[in-house]
Amino acid sequence: MRADAQRNATKLREAAAELFGERGLQVPLKEIARRAGVSHGTLYNLFGSREALIDEVVADLAAARLDEAARTALACDDPWSGFAGYVYRVCELQAVDPALGDVLTRRFPDASRLMGVCDRTFAAAAAVIERAQRAGVLRPDFTGEDLVLFLAAQAPIARASAGSGVWKRAVAFLLDGLRPATAHPLPAPPPTTGQMTRILTGGP
Amino acid sequence: MRADAQRNATKLREAAAELFGERGLQVPLKEIARRAGVSHGTLYNLFGSREALIDEVVADLAAARLDEAARTALACDDPWSGFAGYVYRVCELQAVDPALGDVLTRRFPDASRLMGVCDRTFAAAAAVIERAQRAGVLRPDFTGEDLVLFLAAQAPIARASAGSGVWKRAVAFLLDGLRPATAHPLPAPPPTTGQMTRILTGGP
DNA sequence: AGCCAAGTTGACCGCAGGGTCAACTTGCCG
DNA sequence: CGGCAAGTTGACCCTGCGGTCAACTTGGCT
């Protein structure tokens, strides 16, 4: 790869990181090219597709943050605090960085590394949940799918209320509903992972 | 108004009701015209704008359903059952009819009658909440704004999970978090109505 | 320095959406 | 039944998106 191509790729990665972070993963590619100061043709030449760019720019950063949240949660002595802190933290990440909100929704199935991050995060969330449930501090009928659906639903509100922290209230209401002592029977069976995916992607 | 214009307006209203109900209020106007079997020019000629069409087609129906839900809630002897049933009912309306989901989000500020429905619904929700709080069965720090934000966040999930009823789980978790006995202090002050509106519209 | 492959550019295509309007058709009244 | 206003049509404009590619520029090797 020639030096100028290297430079352009770097500029594009930087611009993409900025715009993804500001406005989510669906920002127009031409706008990324514009901010990077190169032609959009160059972007297509160097990356080929939005998914490839996402994989290069977002996947590692998202993985680092989400993995760290899971690690912190599991390292917490109190399983409930670990779980509650995890939910707050992931919501906060979504509030601060719109790109992270798009990770969990699986709206970019061709970004393979990102899908890997998504899968790992789902497994981590399940572990955090299970630990709390084994400790008897989290209602046993709450599933990983429930949590992901909650996070996905909150994402837009978290983004829009990043400054005021209003999203924290929704998390608090949820958490108060997840303690075993307060649990009432649920009106519907838990969604399968496939159902969850279909609901998230909006597809059939 | 000439007879053929009358007929076309009726066909357009029917087609709009169908498509709004199937796919929400942002359905392309040209598609409505296509389903009605008329030119899109006729649609613009007869209604002038999407908002006007919405006001004619959706506002009354939405008002009827939402008002009925509120009436039922207030007529319920048990304030908690009234409140809980109201939340379920509104979510169900959103699940069954995507157009209703778009009503609460205030995404069509120029549809004045629809905004009126929105305001009345907000007031009704506040009344349902207040009654339950006065009876001591609903935590006192839960506000109408909180409920609207919840409903707006759930709307896409309710739509996508209309068949399976998975959305009911989210409602159930919320309700279990709203009983006074289980309430923990909230991590953020309640949003003002203005904040809520800004969050819903995504705008500044 | 000279050359050529590597890289860049921006015009261009297709598509979809909102919106307009001159030319046409047609309901309806005298 | 004739004629005109009312109404309809679809071609057309604009914007903005993803994506392609021939023509140009330039890095860097010999």
Automatic annotation (TrEMBL), chains A, B:
Region (Disordered): 183-204
Any single Pfam family the record assigns to this protein: TetR_C_43
DNA-binding region: 28-47
Transcription regulation keyword on record: yes
Cited InterPro entries: Homeodomain-like_sf, HTH-type_TetR-like_transc_reg, HTH_TetR, Tet_transcr_reg_TetR-rel_C_sf, TetR_SbtR-like_C
Occurrences of domain HTH tetR-type (ranges): 6-65
Record GO terms (molecular function): DNA-binding transcription factor activity; transcription cis-regulatory region binding
Entry keywords, A to Z: DNA-binding, Transcription, Transcription regulation
Protein name: TetR family transcriptional regulator
